[in-house]
Amino acid sequence: MTKVQIKVNDNGSFRVTGDVELIDGEGNVFEAKPAFSLCRCGLSKKKPYCDGSHKGHFESVVRVEQVE
């Protein structure tokens, strides 16, 4: 099985790569490609997918907390 990777893009989407199934709250399967971006800002008109609407309207930079 291919390892799934989810990247939190700065000021943007969640980028998903790998063999993953995306389903809605009722268990219906969304058509998905081997790589796709999910909306994180709530502005996309193609939710759950990102359509770029966040540009200039959403700020979020998430980093892993470094433990010393």
Automatic annotation (TrEMBL):
Which Gene Ontology molecular-function terms are recorded? 2 iron, 2 sulfur cluster binding; metal ion binding
A GO CC term?
Answer: cytoplasm
Q: Where is the Iron-binding zinc finger CDGSH type domain positioned along the sequence?
A: 15-60
Please verify whether the record's keywords include Iron. Answer: yes
Question: Would I find Disulfide bond among this entry's keywords?
Answer: no
The UniProt entry, under Pfam families, shows: zf-CDGSH
Question: InterPro entries in the record, alphabetically?
Answer: FeS-contain_CDGSH-typ, MitoNEET_CISD
Q: Which UniProt keywords apply?
A: 2Fe-2S, Iron, Iron-sulfur, Metal-binding
Listed SMART domains: ZnF_CDGSH
In Swiss-Prot or TrEMBL terms, this protein is called Iron-binding zinc finger CDGSH type domain-containing protein
